[in-house]
Amino acid sequence: MKCRVCQAKAMIKIERHHTAFCPICFTDYVHKQVERAVADERMFTRSEEILLAVSGGKDSLALWEILIKLGYKTAGLHVDLGIGDYSRASRAKAERFADSRGARLIVHDLPNELGAGIPQIAEKTDRPPCSACGLVKRYSFNQIALEKGFSVVATGHNLDDEAARLLGNVLHWQEEYLDKQSPVLPAAHEKLVKKVKPLYRLAEREIAAYSIMNRIEYIVEECPNATGAKLLVYKDVLNRLEENAPGTKHNFYLTFLRRRSAGSAEFTEGFPTCQRCGQPTQAGGAARRKAANDSGESALAGATASAPAAHPSSSQENGGARSPLCGYCRLMERVHA
Amino acid sequence: MKVILHHPKRETEVRGPRTVQSLLKALELASEAHLVIRGEELITEDEPLFDSDVIEIRPVISGG
């Protein structure tokens, strides 16, 4: 098989684009997809310093490599989750990458900072580990970005991640999550920084191929807590569909983005701030869903227009908005009880 | 040929000659969810494989 661009020997075939690439032309294709994502969604500019969430896996390390090569200013943030050998190996990959590129890496060590890693947090709060992990990571990325003066946080979420998440949200009609599913979440509150996903146009297989071709050493092992995770089931289903109909994942997610149009902010207006940390106690779709319900529309329809702000009095009717603490601070209260 | 698999990491023997596509089919692995590596190089689905080859099949899907 030959590269469709230069006729050299191809190393990867991309069915959904009816094409194949050699390593040089494939690297160029990946860089162009990321540049397009950054430009189309107005994610950041070369004058901003981007805080990149780096797990040690292929997606975040590939994204770091791409942004460095494209001339963006970056710093990495690794959250050490305290999940035994898996976390030790993941941290080592992130540190080795940063050292080899002369890049700045901030490490947030949960067992040291909080006195508990994810296994202990999950046990003490009786929450599934993946749920506790997601909450702690999202909060940590935002909080550390605020403390260190970054205006934007980038994560390595790819097309497969977003398509699988969309499938799960549609299957369960989780409209509040559909509202927040966007490659860009603008900073909608003084305590929230902008979040971006520059890899949303690239399939997971393409990012793994990029990592291998560019000799990026990433952790291949899976998190021990991910076994049986719903997201993996959705990815498996989508990949079976993809094999029969190449382009399915791309069409599913990118058409969703086109149809919902603008208006994917973390919608926080009218919600009280956490008494401990000052972040909104509830952000995103819950506010929009409430506003849409109040106006007699579905939340999906509300997502395509500028939904009215949730009124403070109506937010009190929502169970989650009654607490004076945000989800993270409630979790920490239980961990340290 | 020797085939190295992950999750969990293990090795198996598969008879050649056959193509990459045929190897994935024999092992019931989805091509969209795996990459095939010989030496340090990725290889495409039409590439012939022989008994003397050492092949790594790397899963590309992670739990996020």
Show the helix and strand layout.
The complex is a heterodimer of chains A (337) and B (64).
Chain A: E1 12-14, E2 19-21, H1 23-40, E3 49-53, H2 58-69, E4 73-80, H3 84-101, E5 105-109, H4 110-114, H5 118-125, H6 129-148, E6 152-154, H7 159-171, H8 175-180, E7 184-185, E8 194-196, H9 204-213, H10 230-244, H11 248-260, H12 285-294, H13 299-303, H14 312-315, H15 327-335
Parallel strand pairs in A: 3-4, 3-6, 4-5, 6-8
Antiparallel strand pairs in A: 1-2, 7-8
Chain B: E1 2-5, E2 10-13, E3 18-19, H1 20-26, E4 34-38, E5 41-42, E6 48-49, E7 54-59
Parallel strand pairs in B: 1-7
Antiparallel strand pairs in B: 1-2, 3-6, 4-5, 4-7
Order of helices and strands of chain B: EEEHEEEE
Most extensive chain-chain interface: A-B, 39 and 25 residues
CA-CA gap between termini of chain A: 61 Å
Apparent shape of chain A:
globular
Helix content of chain B: 10-25%
How much is the average pLDDT of chain A?
A: 87
Q: Give the helix/strand class of chain A.
A: alpha/beta
What is the N-to-C succession of helices and strands of chain A?
Answer: EEHEHEHEHHHEHHEEHHHHHHH
**Averaged pLDDT of chain B:** 94
Count of individual beta strands of chain A:
8
Low-confidence stretches of chain A: 294-321
How would you classify the quaternary structure? heterodimer
Distance between the termini of chain B: 32 Å
Helix content of chain A: 40-55%
User: How many strands in all of chain B?
Assistant: 7
Tell me the number of helical segments of chain B per DSSP (H or I, 4 or more residues long). 1
Low-pLDDT runs of 5+ residues of chain B are none
- According to CATH, what is the topology of the largest domain in chain A? Rossmann fold
Q: Give the full name of the CATH homologous superfamily of the largest domain in chain A.
A: HUPs
Walk me through the structure:
The complex is a heterodimer of chains A (337) and B (64). Chain A is 49% helix and 9% strand. With 337 residues, chain A is an alpha/beta fold. Chain A has 2 domains: 12-265, HUPs (Rossmann fold); 267-337, no CATH class. In chain A, 45% of the residues are buried. Chain B is mainly beta and 64 residues long. Helix content of chain B is 11%, strand content 39%. Chain B has one helix at residues 20-26; strands spanning 2-5, 10-13, 18-19, 34-38, 41-42, 48-49, 54-59. In chain B, a hairpin with a 2-residue loop joins strand 4 and strand 5. At the A-B interface, helix 7, helix 9 and helix 10 of A face strand 4 and strand 5 of B.
